[in-house]
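B., you asked whether I could sanity-check this one before it goes into the benchmark set. Here's the sequence:
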Amino acid sequence: MKKKTEICICGGGNLAHVTGGYLASKDEYSVRLLTRHPEKWCVDGRPLIVEDPDGNRFRGNFSLVTPDAQTALDGAEIVLLCVPGFAIADELKKIREYVTSDMYIGSIVSSTGFFLMADELLGLDTRLFGLQRVPFIARVDEYGSKAMLLGYKPSITIATLHISEREYLVSTLTAMFDVPVVLLDNYMKVTLSNSNPILHPSRLYGMFGSCRETYDSEIMFYEDWDVRSSEILIECDREFRKVAESYDVGENDIPSLLTYYESSDAVSLTKKIHSISAFKGLRAPMIRLESQKYVPDYENRYFTEDIPFGMLMVRAFAERQGITTEMIDTVISWAQNVMNREYLRDGILNGCDLVDTIVPYVL
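And here's what the prediction gave me:
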């Protein structure tokens, strides 16, 4: 009988639910879960249920659910971080004492500086891999019990560092996720991203940049997307392309967002975003007040991850290369004001709150 591949999933959010449940449903894998709240998972031995848009149900039984890193990593071949960007450094610090030379340490989110942080915190000989984009659109339905796989990606693109057995890793990940895996030759091609680090902050500024105190109703993040948000996004993406090209990351590696969304201008981009079924139903980060009014939620991950570990990383690489980013600076300046943080000071990344961002790993 073929030995099962031992996989450790680190995290407890949307992606940990769907990725962990999807992999645990397959007989080829023994999946452990490293989480801070094991008591909330798979109560009474019930499997984790993952449902997709086609009505498929995946029932995943974890071999172990634990908050103890040493136990979770013991014997694991693949360790996959499914945590948001702002939590990656802490997760790496938690596991680093138990990482061995025969493990593959990966992150399902790489566009928030995973390779930079892991290389510094785990050591230069650790075998690292990271995904360019998440393989699923994922949402928790019932914490620890049920999750929704809202959309698949037709392929997965990865990069590696310190791995000589790249073909083996590619074939392993292909079997795990049931889609083709494309291997890039440069980890900067998954570190730099115009997805969440550019898309989310641009939309936030488009929605809330007028700094209104309250709103009469909730705003849908994508369904209410407007031309102004598209204009901001296109300009931020244009500046991003300059940064990417300075690191030999071309259009074929990371297409412009107009190309990616098969659009030609702000109007057609807005229509395209409205048409994407996987985007429907996603609300903007807002809090409902007792007055029935709504205000932006500046503690939401759209702010706490996509600014300090997303757009700021792009801005830091731009500063290293001497590239001017006027629109990105405008968005960051607005965001730091509403978040009560200081990142940019006099047009330079020397604000007092940079210590809690990805920037120290870049500059």
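One thing to flag: The mean pLDDT is 94. Otherwise nothing jumped out at me.
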